[in-house]
Amino acid sequence: MALEFHWTLPTEGDLQGRDPGDPTARPGHWVTVARAAERAGFHALMVPSGRHRPDAWLVAARLARETRRLKFLVAFRPGFVLPAAAAQAAASLQQLTGQRLLVGVLAGGDIAEHRAHGDLIPHDDRFARAAEFLSVVRQVWRGRPGGIGLRHEGVHYRLQNGGLVRPLRQPPPVHVGGPSPAAERVAAEHADVYTLWADSPDRFAGRVRRVQALAAGRGRTLRFACRVHVVARDTEAAAWAAVEHHVGGPVRDRPADGIWTGYGAWRTPGTPRAGTALVGSLRQVAAQLAEFHRLGADSLVLSGDRGLEEACRIGEEVLPLVKVRVPAAEEAL
After folding, report:
1. What is the CA radius of gyration of the chain?
2. What is the value of pTM for the model shown?
3. Using CA atoms, how far apart are residues 196 and 175, in angstroms rounded to an integer?
4. pLDDT in tens, 251-276
5. Kindly report the CA angle at 259 between 256 and 261, in degrees rounded to 5?
6. 253 and 261 in contact (C-beta within 8 Å)?
7. Around Cβ 242, how many Cβ atoms within 10 Å?
8. Using CA atoms, how far apart are residues 325 and 331, in angstroms rounded to an integer?
9. pLDDT digits (tens, 9 = 90+) for 72-98
10. Among the listed residues 171, 183, 140, 136, the one whose alpha carbon sits nearest the alpha carbon of residue 156
11. Cystine design at 22: which of 15, 83, 174, 272 (Cβ 3.0–4.6 Å)?
């Protein structure tokens, strides 16, 4: 399968919610970003979920009307919605968009967000629930074989006479992310794609091998997605200058290899949070992205500080440089 590129839609706006009048946090701007991402050659648009963001499913449904080929990666959080309802919503959007849905499942995350939605299950139990959630979703998608409804008696969910009236002929690929061993086990058993943040080459490759081995032990194979923020400019100095302008000061943890692991801490000061940025010239960033593909990433999920401008810049000036580094034999697949 050819390397795929996904872009992240910042529905909270380029100012990250700091200004309620931010014009980039409005539906008209989201439509512009989606159209630009499609023209720039991105395969899919990731629509983030969160209590301070608009409903990702409704946003994706709206943007699907404004695009033709672009797919949409939208997430569910088990505990916020029942699996049969989630399966039905996903099946509906898959049909309405002409098979352009990718489903994400977020099992971990901020405990405050879960409490704000009334989900009080302990953090360590969420992954067992996510595994059962995905098992039920896939059973519901299979419909009612022989006209017999689904019956499920589990720890977290119980269904009687469940299942879609008509089976979903092309279920959307399921993405699972998370850095914990529990998340890795859920992905190995239930996901089609495991998403992990960019890291040093050795650590990234090691995690890919470990999760692939877990999947193989279950008789399955997985694809992998690399999630990373990108700051690419004509020169490396200009890229770091852009970072320092955005953060409002010098970056003291600047790495020599252009992989800035302080990005997540800067986005949410004082809160440990995953997040890595690639910073460098257009060619340097392209080489780094191609390296993550060589290490096992089948898709690259990218984001930028300005959703529209960076989608155009990365799509038009970086992605072509990545593609020329991908062996021609892969592109022909």
Report:
1. 20
2. 0.91
3. 10
4. 877 776 788 887 766 555 444 455 89
5. 115
6. yes
7. 15
8. 10
9. 999 988 888 999 999 999 999 999 999
10. 136
11. 15
